Amino acid sequence: MKSDIIKPTDRLWKIAFLYGDEWKYWKKELLEFGFSMQDPISELLAVEGWDED
Predict the structure, then answer these.
(1) Highest taxon of the source (predicted)?
(2) So what's the pLDDT on residue 37?
(3) Most exposed among 19, 33, 38, 53, judged by the fewest C-beta atoms under 10 Å?
(4) CA angle 7, 19, 30 (to 5 degrees)
């Protein structure tokens, strides 16, 4: 079954609809890793590792 809720070309801010109340935390984390809320979701999916310095 294929879902069209979000697509790789959608912007990161659209993930907020999936995370609800937890979005505030995840938005902060993404921003700290250098993402912009205007980046496409495909950029997030392309990350191979989440190493923190």
Answers:
(1) Bacteria
(2) 93
(3) 53
(4) 75
What pLDDT digit, counting tens, does each position of 20-50 carry? 899 999 999 999 999 999 999 999 888 887 7
Q: How far is CA 14 from CA 19, 41, 47, 49, 52, in A?
A: 10, 9, 18, 22, 25
15: tokens are: 């993930």
Q: Where are the domains of the chain?
A: 12-45
Rounded alpha-carbon distances, angstroms, from residue 7 to 2, 17, 33, 49, 53: 11, 13, 21, 21, 30
